[in-house]
Amino acid sequence: MGPAIRVRLFAGAREAVGAPSLPWPVPTAGLAIETLLGELVGRYPRLGPIVRHSRFLVNSEYVDPKRSRVAPGDEFAIHPPYSGG
Length: 85
Fold this sequence. Notes:
alpha+beta; Ubiquitin-like (UB roll); 5-stranded mixed β-sheet; 7 strands; globular
């Protein structure tokens, strides 16, 4: 595997993938978050409805998925809406 990021998954996203995190290969030049989400949903289709309502962080900072990118070594987190108490 080439350069990678760490994808962290929370709540329903974790359930959809079946793991709390996973490594994900990205090009050395980085990858648009929208492209990354498309790849993730392609591999884990149950993520599709979840990511539509999720918030995203890169290296612990909230980002706009339409304007942001990830680069090798980054940590990308998917936070779906939480429920319960």
